[in-house]
Each structure stands twice: as structure tokens, then as C-alpha cells.
Design goal:
Blueprint: H1 2-29, E1 35-36, E2 60-61, H2 65-73, E3 78-83, E4 88-92, H3 94-98, H4 112-124, E5 130-131, E6 139-141, E7 147-149, E8 153-156, E9 168-174, E10 179-185, E11 192-193
Parallel strand pairs: 2-3, 8-11
Antiparallel strand pairs: 1-5, 3-4, 6-7, 8-9, 9-10
Length: 197
């Protein structure tokens, strides 16, 4: 009888510790905003993660390098996961942003003027701004379909007027130096979408 009680207690203790570890794992997943302390305007707490347009049409997932390259050659809007196993952090090509069906309301996108305001605030208030990036935040996808960690946070913004789609810009944020620059890139590269609240 004593052996049965000991076995029961051992099973109970193990199940409690498993529940605690599951709770800790869930807590680890809950993160605060990506960037805190901004005054110019409020950014969303996390990157955009939808896989359909505003009208409900699905956006094609192009996870393999060959699928990505082919879709971009055809100027087709596509997305992929940074990490397929975890199914997190979606990257989008430029054709998602310029598609007439829209992926988010235009007033939610960061404009070029707002990026300039953000740039000024990042350099003048370095001590009051905190970054809260996860590992996948600095990944991008090249036009040939490979994911790279460049140690910078890159995100699409909606330009006021795009003259040439072969020369589009992306915002590049260095979370160590607080430097924000606009960079010319291929429209076939894949980046995060970051919106205003």
C-alpha cells in the first residue's frame, strides 16, 4: 500500500512540474512591444502576420526558394515564414504591398514622412527608446528565395509614389545604434510589414 502511495505522489509531483514548464514556455512566448518609448507615433506591437488580402483572397505562400523566385519573376504577391517549423514571422514581397486588393488599410502603413520623424526621434532620444526584438526580427528573404539574418530589422513601408518598381525602398533599423536608413532594394526581396497602431 505504501508503494502505491509513493507512486501516486511521484506521478502528482511530475505532472505539476510539467504543467509549470508548459506555463513557463507560454510566458516566454508572451513578449512586450517591439519598440517602446516612441513619441512621434505609435507602432504596432508586432509585425503584420496575415496571409490574405482585405477582400479575403488568399496570398500565396512561397516557402521554397524555387517557388519564391518563380513567383517574384511573375510579379506575383507572396509570403513565407522566417521559420517554417515554428510557423512565425512572415516576410512579404513588394507585390503584396502594391496589389490593388490591399493587405491593410493605407492609413495604417508608415509613410516616408513618418519614417523621417521616426529617424529624428531615434537619434535624439536614444536613452528613452527600448527595443524588444526576437531572433527572427532581423531576417530578410533575397530575390533568389534564401533567408538571411542581416542583424538589422528591415520592413516595408508604403511609399507615396513609386516611379519605378525595380527601385523600391525598405526601412532598415539598427537596434544597437538607433539608426534608421532607407535603402534601395529589389521588389522581389521579402521583408516584414510593420504598421501603425
Amino acid at each position: 500500500m505504501i508503494r502505491i502511495w509513493i507512486l501516486f505522489i511521484a506521478i502528482f509531483v511530475l505532472s505539476c512540474s510539467n504543467n509549470n514548464s508548459e506555463l513557463n514556455n507560454e510566458t516566454d512566448e508572451v513578449r512586450g512591444p517591439l519598440i517602446k518609448g516612441l513619441k512621434s507615433f505609435q507602432l504596432a506591437d508586432s509585425f503584420f502576420e496575415k496571409s490574405e488580402f482585405l477582400n479575403g483572397d488568399p496570398i500565396k505562400q512561397a516557402q521554397s526558394a524555387s517557388d519564391w523566385k518563380k513567383a517574384c519573376a511573375n510579379k506575383e504577391p507572396v509570403w513565407c515564414y522566417v521559420d517554417l517549423e515554428k510557423k512565425n514571422e512572415k516576410l512579404y514581397n513588394y507585390y503584396v504591398l502594391t496589389d490593388k486588393r490591399g493587405i491593410a488599410p493605407k492609413n495604417k502603413f508608415i509613410s516616408k514622412k513618418e519614417l523621417e520623424d521616426l529617424q529624428e526621434e531615434l537619434t535624439s532620444n536614444q536613452n528613452s527608446i527600448e527595443f524588444n526584438w526576437n531572433k527572427e526580427s532581423s531576417f530578410e528573404r533575397s530575390f533568389i528565395g534564401n533567408n538571411y539574418d542581416l542583424k538589422f530589422v528591415n520592413f516595408w513601408y508604403l511609399e507615396d509614389a513609386v516611379v519605378e518598381t525595380s527601385k523600391v525602398q525598405v526601412a532598415v533599423l539598427n537596434q544597437k545604434s538607433n539608426e534608421l536608413i532607407l535603402e534601395m532594394v529589389s521588389p522581389n526581396n521579402g521583408y516584414h510589414i510593420w504598421l501603425k497602431k
